[in-house]
Design brief:
268 residues, alpha+beta, five-stranded antiparallel beta sheet, disordered C terminus
Amino acid sequence: MKIQVRIRAVVSLTFSLGLGWAGLVQAENAAIQQIEQVLLESHRQGAQVQQQITHLDQEAEAAYRQYQQHLQHIRQLTTYNQQVERMLIQQEAEIAQTQQQLAVVEKMQAAALPLLVDMYQALHDFVAQDMPFLHQRRLQALAALGQQLDDAQLSLADKYRHLLEAYQTEIQYGHEFVAWQGQILDAQQTPQQVRFLRVGRVGWFYQNLTATQGTRWHAEQQIWQPLNPQDQALLSKGLSMADENMLPDLLTLPLFMPQLAQGEKVHE
């Protein structure tokens, strides 16, 4: 009987110890799980913090790059502004120099305009006193030249160029040996077709179309004078030479040699 009681006591103690050990193990497992959860949460939060740190680092790096770009842009702007400032200083100096040059040009224009007017008047007087060949055309050219000289839109250089062209045209007339057919009024004021021959400014002739009558312009008397038979033959020869129908040859036509009046000087 006592043995049974002891066995029961041992079994009861063993069962109690087993129950205690199981509870202890269960409590330990729960603690371990709680610790693991804490560690997992800590790792998760650490990962989030690391992501935030990485993101902030990337933002900081991007901000630094942008800062460097701004610095580079500022340096470029500074260099550009310095260059523009130097250009402005140079332009101001050039403007001042140009203004001085314009002032000189204005003074030159003020002095040159009267000279152009004098040159024009001298040319006009020359044409008026010259042999009246192509008279209407030359007067029209002078009238057009006068309008150009009065044109406020034309520069002084253009006016001077037109004036020189007119002088060159008149000079060229003095070197020409030309023949042409034209019309002249006879003593009865009847138009008559004739052949003209001009030798520069020293000889002006015409011959009727039948080559039976020749006439020369007397510059001093301002009239047409008949030619003698010998000069008439020379005029026919001269017309053929001007028409290039014969080789050039020496002509002894009566020519007018203008002489300077007493006290008159040659203007170069």
